[in-house]
Design brief:
alpha/beta, 9 strands, globular
Length: 618
């Protein structure tokens, strides 16, 4: 009878969880994509759904009942499942009614700010005629990298900076105060400390010990590279709107013919197939192009979780999005990177083979660094010389020239450490925000602190991406989060080093899909992130491989690139039909653009390519 009671508890818990979770996630997708029939109504429904879901996962009573049920578990499977649910609730429970009410108040404030930010009239003032041009944050960033007119690049940067002033005046600092009140009421130093304790099972101090160490070990190389760059290009190159252009403007244009926007889907699918990656019958919905009213950052969410339900496989249902602009120089490169990145997330969450949905979601206690390792490892492949020689082809089918690969390496490698420091800027800024004395938490003080952090870490007059233009800081689910990208980079380079030393290559290595599925993906959040990395690589997680990569000189990098390209003749290209074991739907808002549900992946990719050309022409 005890076993039956435990089984009933688990079954009822699963059903209630899935009902609340799937409703929230479906509303999340429709409101973020701006495809609701009645956006105001569905925003209200989304807030209510998120509050209801938070009440469920923050319930002390459920945690208490599960711990009692754990004592009655009589099979190893029941014990494992209960342990998973207990970890889930322990990571999210808020004990007191006062703290629960505060959490719900914060959600309401966050959604109100999200609506305001989504309706912001974002763009730039055209210096030629002093007229406002509406442009997304993605478009402004591309302008800074590719526009030949310095005045227009500066205008684009000022457009990005306007996001900061907007959100600061729209109530963001009130949210910071409320978040800190919540974190401290739960016994932590501040909100940031609480969030990383819940999500990463680490304290804030431990996270920043790692980041501080990385900052120190990349400082000399970054300073040396900046001084040489300034000597070559002049003092004005240290302005953020000039720096990224000087580094990438010409390269981006020369690379563009080899990364056509329309071919991105086909290259993503073929590359994943060659790596042996499959999605275990998942349904993937992709919304790839930028448009007005759409959330201005790529993401993947999984409204249908993959798990074995009483022995029957439930495949994942996954949505992911990009904000690609097919008519802009560099748009194809960005689209392909997003497909590899968000597709990496999708592969991960499609391949979790545990026996309950608590192991398969992307929220606490799933480590953000663990989740980002999967996506960032896979998008790192497209920077490799051998990958580019095989997949980066122009309209005539010609591979990217070795001379262009060499230029890319010689221009980018000296700044790899600087790039890590640019990423570190965001969590350093966010930490300062939560550690700011409340009596100084006002727009002027905050912006001055941000500019100081940007100048120290990036060595420019200001950061290339204003801190508060990064959407993660505003969102409750992504706040106190960005550090995970840097910790994931550590794991990425450790993982790359492992495969290179064992197999000799990364491009089209079919062992990668099998090993990632076995060691990184199958267990979901049932194992700690650091254990998962060590299980595959055989060594504890450290920054060593990343630091070595950052401090490598360009000559050595170029030599290794040539060796990898020369080895391509020994690595068979993937020639078969692309079968990712997934039903893929490509949409644009409410429009279905292409699908492989009644045809091949290649046919779908061709339809998408043709559709992109029509969009470009219109």
């Amino acid at each position: 009878m005890q076993m039956t009671r435990v089984a009933k508890v688990l079954d009822e818990l699963k059903e209630e969880y899935l009902s609340l979770y799937e409703n929230k996630e479906d509303l999340f997708w429709r409101t973020k994509m701006g495809i609701s029939e009645d956006l105001d109504k569905e925003h209200e429904q989304f807030v209510k759904a998120e509050v209801a879901f938070n009440r469920f996962m923050q319930s002390p009573e459920r945690l208490k009942n599960l711990r009692e049920a754990r004592e009655d578990a009589q099979t190893e499977e029941q014990q494992q499942t209960l342990d998973g649910w207990i970890r889930y609730f322990a990571a999210n429970v808020i004990e007191t009614p006062e703290a629960q009410a505060l959490s719900e108040e914060i959600v309401t404030l966050e959604k109100a700010l999200e609506r305001k930010r989504g309706g912001m009239n974002l763009g730039y003032i055209d210096p030629a005629n002093n007229e406002f041009v509406k442009t997304s944050s993605i478009g402004l960033g591309l302008m800074m990298r590719t526009d030949t007119d310095e005045a227009r690049r500066k205008a684009a940067y000022e457009g990005l900076q306007s996001i900061e002033n907007f959100v600061l005046e729209a109530g963001f600092l009130d949210i910071i105060k409320k978040r800190n009140e919540l974190g401290r009421s739960l016994g932590y130093e501040d909100y940031y400390d609480w969030r990383v304790s819940v999500v990463e099972q680490m304290r804030k101090k431990d996270i920043f010990d790692w980041l501080d160490d990385l900052e120190r070990k990349t400082a000399d190389k970054a300073k040396e590279s900046l001084m040489a760059f300034q000597k070559e290009h002049g003092e004005s190159v240290l302005e953020p709107w000039n720096f990224m252009y000087a580094r990438a403007g010409n390269l981006t244009k020369e690379l563009d013919p080899y990364f056509s926007f329309g071919s991105a889907v086909e290259r993503w699918g073929r590359s994943f197939a060659a790596l042996g990656i499959t999605f275990r019958d998942a349904t993937l919905t992709l919304d790839l192009l930028d448009r007005e009213g759409k959330y201005e950052n790529g993401f993947m969410h999984c409204p249908g979780l993959a798990f074995y339900d009483k022995g029957a496989w439930k495949p994942a249902r996954i949505n992911f999005t990009a904000n690609a602009a097919p008519s802009q120089v560099g748009g194809g490169l960005r689209a392909l990177k997003t497909l590899l990145h968000e597709g990496g997330h999708a592969a991960h969450f499609s391949n979790i083979t545990m026996n309950a949905p608590c192991f398969s979601h992307e929220f606490a206690p799933t480590s953000v660094a663990y989740a980002e390792t999967q996506s960032m490892f896979l998008d790192s492949l497209m920077t490799d010389a051998d990958w580019r020689r095989r997949y980066a082809l122009n309209a005539d089918g010609e591979p990217i020239p070795m001379s262009l690969i060499e230029r890319t390496i010689r221009e980018n490698q000296p700044f790899m450490g600087w790039g890590i420091r640019s990423m570190v800027t965001i969590p350093f800024g966010e930490r300062a925000l939560y550690e700011c004395p409340e009596d100084k938490l006002e727009p002027g003080y905050v912006l001055e602190a941000f500019r100081g952090i940007e100048q120290k870490l990036q060595g420019l007059s200001a950061g290339v991406r204003p801190i508060l233009s990064v959407p993660h800081l505003l969102s409750g689910e992504a706040s106190a989060y960005y550090h995970a990208y840097i910790i994931a980079e550590m794991a990425v380079y450790q993982t790359r080093k492992f495969f290179l030393e064992r197999d000799g290559h990364l491009t089209d290595n079919p062992n990668i899909g099998t090993d990632l599925a076995t060691h990184y993906w199958a267990s979901g959040n049932s194992k700690p992130f650091q254990q998962v990395v060590q299980d595959l690589t055989g060594t504890p997680l450290s920054a060593d491989a990343l630091v070595d990569a950052c401090n490598m000189d360009a000559d050595t990098k170029w030599e290794k690139a040539q060796q990898a390209v020369n080895k391509l003749s020994e690595i068979p290209a993937f020639e078969g039909d692309v079968d990712l074991e997934a039903q893929v739907r490509i949409i644009h808002g409410r429009e279905l653009v292409a699908s492989n549900e009644e045809g091949s992946f290649e046919g779908m990719a061709k339809t998408f390519d043709q559709w992109v050309e029509k969009q470009r022409a219109s």
